[in-house]
Specification:
Elements lengths: L7 E5 L4 H12 L3 E5 L10 H15 L4 E4 L14 H31 L5 E5 L12 H22 L4 E5 L26 H14 L10
Parallel strand pairs: 1-2, 1-3, 3-4, 4-5
Helix pairs in contact: 1-5, 2-3, 3-4
C-alpha cells in the first residue's frame, strides 16, 4: 500500500487527456501534484529542461515522491510515407525524454525512499507496446522502446526502493488521436473511458502494483 496523502508527485504531460485526469485523481487522494506540460513551456526533449523541471518541483515542495510520465505524441500512416522528422519527434517525445526523466529523477526518488516513503514512477506505453499496429509502426516502436527500458530499469530501481510501473491501456477516448504529428487517424473501435483508465492507474499506484498490462483495463 502506497500512501498518497501529502506525497509530492510530478505529472509530466499534465495538460493531456490522461495526464490531467491522473493529476486530478492523485489530488483527490491527498497528493501534492506538480504539473509539467509543453503548453507550460516545458520542452522535455531538452535535457536541461528536464533537470530544471525536476529541480524546481523539489525546491518548491521539498522532495519528490512520485513521477508520472504521461506525455506523448502520435503519428499515423504507412511506413513508406514516414518522414525522418516524424520518426525523430516520436522517439524524442515518447522514448528519449521519458528515459531521461526516469534517469534524472533517481536521486530525488531514492532520497524519498531513504526517508521511509514509497516512491514510484509510472509510464504509459499503451497496448501498442504489446501488440504493434500496422499504420502505427513508428509510434508502436517508440512505445515498445519505452516499455523495454522500463522493464529493465524497474529491476535496477527496486534496489533503491523505487517502484516503476508501466501502464498499457488500449485505445482511450482522449484527443491525442485527433492531433497527430503526421497522417490521419483510422477508425478505431470502442474507446476506453479516460476517467476509468486514470482511476485504474491511480488504484495501481496505491495498491503497489508493478505492471499494468492491457488486460488490466
Amino acid at each position: 500500500m502506497t500512501m498518497l496523502q501529502d506525497a509530492v508527485v510530478l505529472v509530466v504531460g499534465a495538460s493531456g487527456g490522461l495526464g490531467s485526469r491522473i493529476a486530478t485523481q492523485l489530488e483527490t487522494k491527498g497528493a501534492v501534484v506538480a504539473r509539467s506540460s509543453k503548453s507550460a513551456g516545458h520542452d522535455l526533449r531538452t535535457p536541461a529542461v528536464i533537470r530544471e523541471v525536476l529541480a524546481d518541483a523539489t525546491a518548491r515542495y521539498g522532495r519528490l515522491d512520485g513521477l508520472v510520465v504521461a506525455s506523448g505524441v502520435v503519428a499515423f500512416g504507412a511506413v513508406s510515407d514516414l518522414e525522418p522528422a516524424t520518426v525523430d519527434e516520436l522517439f524524442a517525445v515518447n522514448t528519449t525524454s521519458a528515459i531521461q526523466l526516469i534517469a534524472q529523477s533517481q536521486p530525488y526518488l531514492a532520497a524519498s525512499a531513504r526517508e521511509g516513503r514509497e516512491p514510484f514512477v509510472v509510464t504509459l506505453s499503451g497496448v501498442v507496446a504489446e501488440t504493434p499496429v500496422a499504420g502505427l509502426a513508428a509510434y508502436s516502436g517508440s512505445k515498445a522502446g519505452l516499455a523495454a527500458f522500463v522493464a529493465a530499469a524497474a529491476r535496477e530501481y527496486r534496489r533503491a526502493g523505487i517502484r516503476i510501473m508501466d501502464a498499457r491501456p488500449g485505445h482511450t477516448g482522449t484527443a491525442l488521436s485527433e492531433h497527430p504529428i503526421a497522417g490521419a487517424a483510422p477508425r478505431f473501435g470502442a474507446a476506453l473511458d479516460p476517467d476509468a483508465v486514470a482511476a485504474r492507474i491511480v488504484t495501481a499506484i496505491v495498491d503497489g502494483e508493478k505492471d499494468l498490462p492491457s488486460s488490466a483495463f
